[in-house]
Amino acid sequence: MVYRRTPKVQARMDSQRAAILDAAVELLATRGYAGCSVVAVAQDAGVATGSVYRHFPSKAELVAELFRQLVTREVEAVERAAQQPGSAGERVVAVVDTFAARALKAPTLAYALLAEPVDTPVEAERIVFRRAFRDVIAARITEGVRDGTLPPQQAPLTAAAIVGAVAEVMIGPLTSGSEGAVGELPTFTLRALGAPDAGNP
Amino acid sequence: MVYRRTPKVQARMDSQRAAILDAAVELLATRGYAGCSVVAVAQDAGVATGSVYRHFPSKAELVAELFRQLVTREVEAVERAAQQPGSAGERVVAVVDTFAARALKAPTLAYALLAEPVDTPVEAERIVFRRAFRDVIAARITEGVRDGTLPPQQAPLTAAAIVGAVAEVMIGPLTSGSEGAVGELPTFTLRALGAPDAGNP
DNA sequence: CCAAGAAGTGAACCACTATTCATACCTTGA
DNA sequence: TCAAGGTATGAATAGTGGTTCACTTCTTGG
């Protein structure tokens, strides 16, 4: 054999792969999942349809990778928020605020990640997405329970419930454009945690 | 003209329509949305494919009608639970319990109604579904706030959040089969409402 | 019984897209 | 430069499943 894949070629291939993912993100953010057809992605990435399949075995894998990438980004942002100083309750509120603020800044993308109908393989990634958020919140709750600022509770359940609550409350604003009653989320969150500063009777 | 649609014919058509809806419910409950193809529905209903279109302008409309019917049933059950004696908090818990118990009894159906990917037109019905639940809960919360057993709050937001929380917590058990930590939902609900008997600090 | 007209049928049609693959074009090391 | 082998292409393919429509069957009132 004479041909060997050199770093130069590898770099070109990597950048093509990145271009495909970028185009897909862009399409997901502007037209939603429906606009993310393989042909459209390829066109926007400046490659041929077939080239997409040199990097991803199927469309589902492409979108799953997409989700993974976006989710990592979001989870990192939320984790940063979770590490700010303050009580466990305050930290969970910070997570919720960060989550909501970022979602409202990129509504179409957020809707796609949160709720838009997708094929089953991609749905699996969405579950990972939600679980990652849940885990970030659950970790804070566990801390709060340990240091006594939160009442004893099943941290994963409360955390899952808060994720669901936030997602549910956001879906209206995300699809309609208005901010709705998102501003009340912190109070709800504190109450749901059983935090002492939540104004409970 | 000689032909007129008589009550007898109308009755036959009505029962055919009902048969189609029944078959669709059955398929939705056993194979999920994916198993609900028009051909399969027609076959199970014992009619021709084309006959489906004599009753529904499109598959989306058929499924939307299906959703409407199922949602009405569920909302009625939940409303009954909401009218049992007790404090506002207890009533909301009764709603949540009823919702969860019924969902666990028909997991595939519940998953289809709650979370399974569907086309956009059907998604609209799902939103109606969730809003109906929200409204039932919000009404109890408003009562509780008025009679002082619950702290002042935006009832619709708390209600939406509780719906989202319940849905989120249920999705795991619904897809995996196990009951998970659903048993903790009442405590969470009471806490989220800010009810006095929730064991808050 | 019959003509008018409606209801019922289901195979064929069609739109939509993910996927393939024969072909053209590049890259490499000798 | 050249042969070997890889990479890129995009038109064609294929599977899916909703929808149609020419045709058959049934119903009605005279």
From TrEMBL, chains A, B:
Which Pfam family, any one, appears in the UniProt record? Answer: TetR_N
Record's InterPro entries?
A: DNA-bd_HTH_TetR-type_CS, Homeodomain-like_sf, HTH-type_TetR-like_transc_reg, HTH_TetR, Tet_transcr_reg_TetR-rel_C_sf
As annotated, the DNA-binding region falls at 37-56
User: What is the name attached to this protein's record?
Assistant: TetR/AcrR family transcriptional regulator
Q: Does the keyword DNA-binding apply?
A: yes
Q: Which residues form the HTH tetR-type domain?
A: 14-74
SUPFAM superfamilies listed in its UniProt record: Homeodomain-like, Tetracyclin repressor-like, C-terminal domain
* Keywords from the named record: DNA-binding
